[in-house]
Amino acid sequence: MGSPLEPDPFPGQRSPSQPAGEAERPIDIDALAQQETVLMLAISELTEAEAASTRETVLMPKVVAKLPLPFQRLTGTVLGRLQDPDPDCWSRTLTQRALKSSASTLGWFPLLALLDAFGTAVAALGPILSRLTSSDQENIFWLGLALIFAPSFLRLLSPLASRRERMCILGGLSLCLYLAIVVLNPLHFIFADEYLHWRTVDNIVRTGHLFGENSLLTISPFYPGLEIVTDALSKLSGLDTFTAGLLVAGISHLLLVLSLFRFYELASGSTRIAGLATAIYMTNSEFFYFNSLFVYETLALALAVFLMVMLVYLERSKRGRGALFLGACLVLGALVITHHITDLFFVGLLIFWVLTRLFLRQTVVKAPPTGLALLGVLLSAGWMIFVASPVFGYLLSPINTAVTELEGVLLHSGAVRQLFVDRSGLSAPLWQRLVTVASLALTVLGLPFGLLSIWRKYRQQALVLTLGLLALLYPVSQLFRFVNDHAGIADRSAPFLYLAVGIVLAIFLAHLWPARVLRWRHALLFTLLGTLVFQGGIFLGIGPTSRLMPGSYVVEGEARSVTPESIQAALWTLEYLHADNRVVTDRDNTLLFGTYGDQDMVTPSDGVSLSPVFFTTDFFPWEQSLLQSAHVQYMVIDLRLSTARPDAGYYYEQGEPETNSPTPISRQALTKFDIVPGIDRLFDSGNIIIYSLGGLSG
Amino acid sequence: MSRKNLDLMLLLLLVIINLGWTLVPEHPSVVDLIFALPLVFALPGYALTEALFKRSSEPITPSPQQARPRRERPFHGSDRFILSIGLSLSLDIVGGLLLNVLPAGLDALSWTALLSILTIVFSGIALYRRRDTPVNAQKGRGKPLRLRSTLYAGAMLGLAVTLATVSVWVSTLSEQQQASPDFTQFWILQAQQMSDNCAALVGIHSSEAVTTTYSVDVTVNGVRASAWSSIVLNPQGEWEQPISMGAEIDNSMYMEAHLYRSDQPGVVYRNVHLAMNRVQGGANQSGQQCSV
């Protein structure tokens, strides 16, 4: 552990592969060269002999002996190669020479940074050409992403990259992948959830205080960490919320990646495994897209992994423990008020870690994870009970629904969701399906071997063992892809479970192909597979991607529904009707009028379902009663809704009338309000009509 | 000034400049951004790191009997970057909770004050803890880079930053210039009452690509009340006109306004309508009031 250029900060802590009693002493490079060659050959032969022997003897577990022959051979090879005490050591002599003669500890990073930037430029061509040609150019975008990821992954496989180089490579990778998201839509947020958090920021900017009401996402004001930081940056720099939000999300992304590297390095004792594990983490279905957005999970995840880094320091360091504990408490406090699920997961992870320590008969009572787990439980429970009590209903209801549906599928009483088809009926092209399946298969199939490696090499390390066991939940979570998973369990659990999956697969990779047997053809193959897994992860998270590129208006198509006409209409309401009016409209216009227009949007969370009002061709008295019961002052009608079915699966709210209708909503239904006494048509911009309901009699 | 505390001195200088800058009434936003970024994302966390973790109090050069100098810091020097950002973000969040309790709340001045005070306090603690640390303990242990390699790295990284920046800039331009359908906004609202007469406000905002000529006619209870022709608006141009309803108009008024384009005079381009009622004033009010 530690490069020759950066002394080991844990002098009492040896890497798991370092034999006990090995003392640090000056190395005579030249004198060792000849001995090294003979030794390498001997180890190689011994490894192969042991592998052969292991396969043939009764030491192989009976269950492995019953597997098909290819799996037996693979397991045998893994078991054999697990004998290697230092899989990262290619050649100590040559490594020392390479490091000594290398131009700088940055190694390949400057070149890779340029390649990453080139990849970003290629990725940017995708949306640019899509706008120019009015056709989807997403294949160029995918090519750009591959150009960003692949070269860096290739270098991370190398045993010669220094620690600093690996950190720089990962930092550059993180930033360029983030910029690839930004170039999709540099002027507007691209996902619905971003607008929800924007509204909370706007409330803070306007009022100067927290916990204001947000009708778009009622739980958001109770977890204001992201919005607090954005507010600080916005007020101090004068930036608008959108730009400040982009910066906060980008820096969170960078912190996440660097913290992951550090965490994996401390856990595994190897910078190479750490680099690979971090790169593998980036292949999870949420990393590229959802965890780059302006949503509270983006910041919370970064804080949580940073907290884990501090905890591992705390566990292993004999010095500065009081200071570390104080720092960890501060970060834990920030995490608790930033995101509910991330907070709950990581407190759960701490508890799991403690239980593993108990199982391994290691110190529990005075161990740092124990103290912080207890504090985490107290803070999380306290915050949820005394401040954010709506979170219980917010979290439990969709999870219950998803679990019930899964239960139904498993018991053959429920319908299996159609895979690779989104709510609008759009299906993924064949090549994307194949890549997605291959990505999932490679990940899941690699887990057992990774666990085997962990059991053989790290089973006395509570943290690594904990992560290994946690990784077993990943295949289970993917079962939710077979149901209408409105809670998004399959995808939303990925960023958390991949904390474990990343290190498990990296350990497997590092031990299956130790550096001394790693050739260029192996490295290129792994890079190809790694890039495949990366792309597949993105397809898994985003779904059929034809709507990712900018283009013409799409009904309820999130970023594709954000048009100048809609934004200008929302701004008009702020200027002429002023803020905080009760306004009802369709799904995507709700986001725009709630943020650009600063209106108090009527949503299903108000406990009233208004969608039936928009589907009838006549205006009935019960509709008037419904609107009045919700205290609606203004109604925004987007006539474009009548041109197509909604991309999101609904126009106004889930479960609305005509959900399964093949035809779009009737234009007559949308324009019936013109002739209703008491409803004034205040605004007309062609597609957007704004009605005032002030004249409706009570 | 002690060389060993140069970093903390620089920190304090940045903080003082930030404090002073906030008090300046008008200032360019680019400079605001340059000052704000480190204050929000780095300075408080860095100062806290230095305050919490003392550097070695022993000489950097190891004695023959000592494999390496004793250090209190349990992490690599390169981790300072991660710690600075992570702890800064955490301080921002917890600090925001604290500011919320204060009457001033979260505004520019309170943010500057809070983050500056935190940085100053933590820097002070760090200075105190470093008082017996020798100067050479502050030096980095990294291998000094050769000039040629520095130039190479600098050139490549500079190119990379330039390429990434240009990519984002071109994407931004392409989005700004993305062809979208032109449109015109047309509206009618109740206006401020003019003596005893009800009034409405009619307005047009043009988001057409070219200069467009419009005409407007307004009817009240089916009778033509007002008309304007040859309203010429450039792109992003705006026109507004109040309409006063005389006393001869009935108590219940239904106003309808139509917008026409000169290139399509017979086609109603946009239409809006507003119903108003003339109401007698209350006991303490004279005259009449209008309501929608």
Structural write-up:
The complex is a heterodimer of chains A (about 700) and B (about 290). Chain A is mostly helical. In chain A, about 60% of the residues lie in helices and about 5% in strands. Chain A contains 26 helices and 5 strands. A 5-stranded mixed sheet of chain A has the order 2-1-3-5-4, with helices on one face. In chain A, helix 24 (about 585-595) links the parallel strand 1 and strand 2 (about 600). In chain A, helix 7 (about 165-180) packs parallel to helix 11 and helix 10 (about 240-270) runs parallel beside helix 12 (about 295-315). The longest helix of chain A is centred in the first third of the chain and has 28 residues, at about 30-55. The radius of gyration of chain A is 28 Å and the shape is globular. Chain B is about 40% helix and about 25% strand. In chain B, a hairpin with a 7-residue loop joins strand 7 (about 270-280) and strand 8. At the A-B interface, helix 5, helix 7, helix 9, helix 10 and helix 12 of A face helix 2, helix 4, helix 5, helix 6 and strand 1 of B. Strand 4 (about 680-685) of chain A pairs antiparallel with strand 1 of chain B, so a sheet runs across the interface.
Instruction: Kindly estimate the percentage of residues of chain A that lie in beta strands according to DSSP.
Output: under 5%
Distance between the termini of chain A: 76 Å
SS strand fraction of chain B: 15-25%
Overall form of chain B: elongated
Strand order of the largest sheet of chain A: 2-1-3-5-4
Number of helices of chain A: 26
The number of strands of chain A is: 5
Low-confidence blocks of residues of chain B: 57-71, 282-288
Approximate helicity band of chain B? 25-40%
Largest interface: A-B, 110 and 96 residues
Largest sheet of chain B, in brief, is: 5 strands, antiparallel
Global mean pLDDT of chain B: 82
- Rg measurement of chain A, Å: 28 Å
Low-confidence stretches of chain A: 1-27, 54-59
Quaternary structure annotation: heterodimer
Mean pLDDT of chain A: 86
- Note the total helix count of chain B: 6
Order of helices and strands of chain B: HHHHHHEEEEEEEE
Structural class call of chain B reads alpha+beta
Distance between the termini of chain B: 72 Å
